[in-house]
């Protein structure tokens, strides 16, 4: 099965609309962190970069009287739930392997516990990688959502990360591949 690339995901209108809403620079940066952290957890970097790139795709803009309202967001946010579903739909449309699409979607669902009534989730390795990658790029006051990046720079960085993933996957021995 041909690998669905991050570039294809990034170029899809669903990602263009919703990943940009939560911050394209944050999504790319989290994906790079995920690539590196995945190695420490022996996690497939292909799944890690896709989940990290899409982790905030479920964000909604909470405005009151034309202003972003953080309290409204904290009270009502379910971006991880919405994102898990939205990312899954996008991946399936792009013909992603359904097992991978489900794993990515679950990692998005569990990337934050801010929407859960009780804390203390036990995360599996891929889910931990994505949560850590998100945290690694966080800035006080949610500033990481507002960093800017040009479309050209974004496309270039995403292509570079695709190449890193392919190089890594090609270096794996057949035994490694059957284990992942
Ligand atoms: Fe998030
Ligand atoms: Fe995030």
Automatic annotation (TrEMBL):
InterPro entries: HD/PDEase_dom, HD_domain, HDIG_dom. Keywords: Hydrolase. It comes from the Bacteria. Residues 23-139 form the HD domain. One of its GO terms (molecular function) is hydrolase activity. CDD domains: HDc. This is Phosphohydrolase. It comes from Salipaludibacillus keqinensis. The lineage of its organism: Bacteria, Bacillati, Bacillota, Bacilli, Bacillales.
